[in-house]
Specification:
Length: 185
């Protein structure tokens, strides 16, 4: 049923006699009861759902005439609409400026790859010298992530530094009179 047709039927109800209106309601209720017994589940469109949610807010006796779905279903639709509204309302605003061109991204990656000791501040200053206006966070975001080498274990350290190690061991040699004498080898 279209919006204009519904509006027409609503306005028509003011001008017809109460007996005619009661008979029309009785006929519609009988058709609904037949529909309830013949069909398992009615197909409701979003505008039908919106109508029942709207009617539930405006008319206190809406539960007495509802036949196509359970009243709890209408309440659930209202809650879902409320959640959707607040999810949309609370959605974070998009932060940041305009997207960065592919050319600048490639330049940042190339500078970082060609100069591994440069960090984001240095690359940022070089980009500004070239006339590009970007933030340091943007430069850091598009720099390739480098893996740090794993730290060496004790055995590797010793193997790498054997030629440079001078070792001295101290031994305590007890004498016959138990006087201490240390010797270095």
């Amino acid at each position: 049923m279209g919006l204009l047709q519904a509006l027409y039927l609503f306005l028509r109800a003011f001008f017809i006699s109460p007996a005619t209106l009661a008979a029309e309601n009785l006929a519609l209720r009988q058709q609904l009861s037949v529909l309830e017994h013949t069909r398992k589940r009615p197909k409701l469109r979003p505008r039908d759902r919106l109508f029942w949610v709207w009617l539930s807010r405006l008319w206190p006796h809406w539960r007495t005439v509802l036949r196509t779905v359970q009243p709890d279903t209408v309440i659930k639709w209202h809650q879902q609409g409320f959640k959707l509204y607040w999810r949309w309302k609370s959605k974070p605003k998009t932060a940041g400026g305009s997207p960065i061109d592919q050319e600048i991204r490639a330049l940042i990656r190339r500078m970082a790859r060609d100069n591994p000791s440069w960090g984001a501040p240095h690359i940022l200053s070089e980009l500004r010298l070239l006339g590009y206006e970007v933030s340091q966070a943007t430069v850091a975001k598009y720099m390739p992530k480098t893996r740090k080498p794993p730290s060496q274990n004790w055995r590797t350290f010793l193997a790498n530094h054997v030629p440079d190690i001078a070792a001295i061991d101290f031994f305590a040699v007890p004498t016959l009179t138990f006087g201490g004498c240390s010797m270095a080898f």
